[in-house]
# Entry
Amino acid sequence: MLNFNQQVVWITGASSGIGEALAQAFAQAGASLILSARRIEELERVKNSLPLSPAQVLVLPIDLEKPETFPELVQQVMDAFNRIDILVHNGGISQRGLVKASPLALDQKIMAVNYFGAVALTKAVLPIMLAQKSGRVVVISSLVGKFGTPMRSAYAASKHALHGFFDSLRSEVWRDNIRVTIVCPGYIRTNISINALTEKGDKHNRMDKNQEKGMAPERCATLILKAVAANKEEVVIGGKEILAVYLKRFFPGLLSWALKRFMKPA
Ligand SMILES: NC(=O)c1ccc[n+]([C@@H]2O[C@H](COP(=O)([O-])OP(=O)(O)OC[C@H]3O[C@@H](n4cnc5c(N)ncnc54)[C@H](OP(=O)(O)O)[C@@H]3O)[C@@H](O)[C@H]2O)c1
# Structure
């Protein structure tokens, strides 16, 4: 039985998919929660589904593209709970578009949400964790944080960037009893492909086969909590697609060959 009793956990992207499943899993493990994303009505729906009292859940809308708002949001969390034990950077947006057809503005938007949003929120929360002399940052990356695939150039770049930043942070703050866990999910059954941005900057609006057949978000969330409880620095979660991470590590030429020949741009 996982135990996060009395822990205050702030989850971004808590309005759907993996973030919603993480909210359920942390709530069942005894944590108090801050639920953040843009859609307040979805956050309220998630809040109402949790086995927690109203005082144990704060709905706190956030737009990860607006880092100037973060200090005020952190203040609201401190007013409500007076501490932050775990910060989960889960909010994010994927991509379906070729490099040759995607304007720079698209790369900048995906970096702003997936990378700079997490960096800015970490910088806003870090002074609190340093003062507490404890804390944990959980970063939801992706398999494409380990290698790039067609139609995901900006998304892969944003996830690779997270590894660089949070590996560095981990090495800086371990003496302060602050831990960093990076999670690399494979295919998880969420709306990520529906919400992905196309070359034109609008929604892809299609459920990809890989996500449709992917791991249930509830299972993914359970495995994330286990990794956090076990103090893992990095964990890969998914089905047989996660073998690609080991190919990249031990046979990178073979993975590159397979990606070029068998991974159709889609
Ligand atoms: N599903 C997969 O196969 C898979 C695989 C690898 C990694 N991941 C990662 O898992 C994380 C969660 O994705 P998901 O699969 O659960 O997809 P999802 O259902 O589309 O959830 C994405 C979440 O991010 C939030 N979000 C998007 N843009 C935001 C912004 N500008 N500001 C604040 N929140 C924002 C969304 O909430 P609002 O729209 O309400 O703002 C939503 O809660 C993402 O980081 C994704 O890259 C997913």
